[in-house]
Design brief:
The complex is a heterodimer. By secondary structure, chain A is an all-alpha fold. Chain A contains nine helices and no strands. The radius of gyration of chain A is 22 Å and the shape is elongated. By secondary structure, chain B is an all-alpha fold. Chain B has a domain of 182 residues: MetI-like (MetI-like fold, Orthogonal Bundle). The chains are: A mainly alpha, B mainly alpha. Chains A and B meet through helix 3, helix 4, helix 7 and helix 9 of A and helix 1, helix 6, helix 7, helix 9 and helix 13 of B.
């Protein structure tokens, strides 16, 4: 499918509206949720959808819709923390490694080699096993896992950029290395980093949900999509929506950020539009 | 070729050494005292804890414990589980077949579906087939494997009653039925990614001048697509296989947990949940080594398919 610029814009618009909707739901959760997310009401245990509980209630009578809305807060916040910290650290390390070259580059590259020798989720599991379960530790683990990919990407871009004329000109003017790297090169690698971090956002939602699903991320009774799915799995036969609804929420969020990444890529890199 | 292989194998040694040290230290950084875990987590007298520490060499320094562990690992002995008092190597050997069969079935399903679909989507670029395949691949890439698994259980086990929901069979043949749903769930991600790679590779290849030449020569379309274009289109597919193996190995953990399969993935999750660190570190080392070796094999395969790489 050859995407005309118009079709590209449509994808971008649809994706950003979906992302905006998700963020809005998370921000307004206290205002629009019909119940507090932890409110236990045993009389409405496994209640079917009704006016009071639009999507029904779980075993403890907690409102499913309210828990989904509040769950989006922890999911989006955790993914944001993972992506922001890994992108920042990975970009700085990649810029330094690519521009400095020599021993610094060799040492950083070996460290990334070792980290990339682990399948992503396995490294995250190992870190969580070592520092303990919980949302904060899951975020730290995934941030560490994502750094080498970003750093490698930025390093290769920096290698290309640093041979270009504008960098030579800046060197001839006697600018300091840190100024050249952070003022001149950084803005030129930023679009690619932005696209990558959007796609990483989608992956980190998936990976965080996976950790919570395995009981190693966000811990019940906190409302979190992955943790809710794990809890709901026990009553799969009896009340399938308890597991399926948070699962679909995860999927919708991931689709939104994947589409946003695709749209941004088309926007910044017209050469790849056909592919 | 042999020199190349030897060089690549040598390059793996330092990476594996550092990775193994990382694995060992990670398992030792834990807040829990291994001696307490082994004593069953209960209040125990210091004398008992001292005896356990002495028996398992936990009173030695970390570097010396690491050397002892590595020396054992090189001989195939990965230590003993805290909880089950079994050898970790034996536990891995017992659970490896299920995971291997799961991964093999997934790779077969993914590639057998992805390549024809990718070719079809590329040749009918912009048609409804293409749009459907591309949209479905986005859905597959965005769906967590445990959601796909749960939906599969609901539909094929509870509603239709075609397939068993949980567990595995007693032998290979029985497992084909038990593992069908788990391996489809695991395959979807790889299927989607491979389909996209085949599609864009085919679109790229069909634009090349040598395809024009082949068309002008009057070669049958079948020959042009399957022989001339496909071989070049499949190269990028081989490149991303390493990445996909990482996905598959991570995915087995989730799929085995979802479907209650007794493979390596569920062993790892159980070991982490019960703080059984010898199992965690031995199994992680095993999976990382396997991952690195498979990646090396893929690189070699790439060299065989594309002679340009070997000469470089």
């Amino acid at each position: 499918m050859r995407r005309r610029p118009k079709a590209g814009r449509a994808v971008l618009l649809a994706a950003s509206s979906l992302v905006a909707l998700l963020c809005l739901g998370a921000l307004l959760a206290p205002a629009i949720a019909p119940h507090p997310p932890q409110a236990i009401d045993l009389r409405s245990s496994f209640a079917p959808p009704s006016q009071d509980h639009p999507l029904g209630a779980d075993k403890l009578g907690r409102d499913l819709l309210s828990r989904l809305l509040y769950g989006s807060r922890s999911t989006l916040l955790a993914a944001l923390l993972v992506v922001a910290s890994s992108t920042l650290l990975g970009t700085v390390l990649g810029l330094v490694s690519g521009y400095a070259g020599g021993l610094v580059d060799a040492m950083l590259s070996r460290i990334f080699d070792v980290l990339l020798a682990f399948p992503a989720l396995l490294l995250a599991l190992l870190i969580v096993a070592s520092v303990g379960r919980g949302m904060a530790n899951a975020v730290i683990a995934l941030a560490v896992v994502y750094v080498p990919t970003i750093a490698r990407l930025v390093r290769s871009l920096t290698l290309v950029e640093s041979r270009l004329a504008y960098v030579e000109a800046a060197q001839a003017l006697g600018y300091s290395s840190s100024r050249i790297v952070f003022v001149h090169i950084a803005p030129n690698v930023a679009p690619v980093v932005l696209v990558q971090s959007t796609i990483d956002f989608a992956y980190s939602i998936l990976d965080l949900a996976a950790l919570s699903f395995l009981g190693l991320g966000v811990q019940p009774p906190l409302a979190d999509w992955g943790a809710m799915l794990a809890e709901g799995r026990e009553y799969l036969l009896f009340a399938p929506s308890l597991a399926v609804a948070p699962g679909l929420a995860i999927m919708a969020a991931v689709i939104a950020f994947n589409l946003l990444g695709d749209g941004l890529q088309t926007r910044f890199d017209p050469g790849r539009r056909g592919a | 070729m042999l020199a190349y292989l030897a060089r690549r194998l040598l390059q793996l040694v330092p990476v594996l050494l550092v990775a193994s040290f990382l694995v060992f230290v990670a398992a030792r950084l834990t807040p829990q005292d291994p001696a307490v875990v082994m004593a069953g987590g209960r209040q125990t007298s210091t004398a008992v804890l001292e005896a356990i520490r002495a028996k398992y060499h936990l009173d030695e320094s970390v570097p010396s414990q690491y050397l002892r562990w590595m020396a054992g690992a090189l001989l195939g002995d990965l230590g003993e589980s805290y909880r089950l008092k079994q050898g970790v190597s034996a536990m891995i050997a017992a659970r490896l077949p299920v995971s291997l069969q799961l991964i093999a079935m997934s790779v077969a399903i993914a590639l057998l579906a992805a390549v024809p679909l990718g070719i079809l989507a590329a040749l009918r670029k912009g048609s409804w087939v293409d749009i459907l395949a591309t949209s479905l691949s986005l859905a597959a890439l965005s769906s967590p494997v445990f959601l796909t698994g749960i939906l599969g259980i609901l539909l094929f086990s509870y509603t239709l009653g075609w397939l068993p929901a949980l567990g595995s069979g007693r032998n290979f043949a029985e497992n084909l039925r038990y593992l069908l749903m788990p391996s489809v769930a695991l395959a979807l991600n790889m299927l989607a990614l491979s389909m996209r790679m085949t599609r864009s590779g085919m679109i790229e290849a069909m634009r090349r001048p040598y395809i024009q030449t082949a068309i002008l020569k009057g070669l049958p379309r079948r020959t042009i697509v399957l022989k001339h274009a496909l071989r070049n289109a499949l190269l990028p597919l081989v490149t991303i296989t390493g990445l996909q193996i990482g996905f598959l190995l991570s995915g087995t953990v989730l799929v085995e947990y979802t479907f209650g399969l007794g493979g390596l993935g569920s062993l790892l999750v159980n070991a982490i949940q019960t703080s059984d660190y010898p199992v965690v570190q031995g199994l992680t080392l095993f999976i990382v080594s396997a991952f690195l070796l498979i990646n090396l094999l893929v690189d070699l395969l790439y060299g065989i398919i594309d002679p340009r790489i070997r000469q470089a």
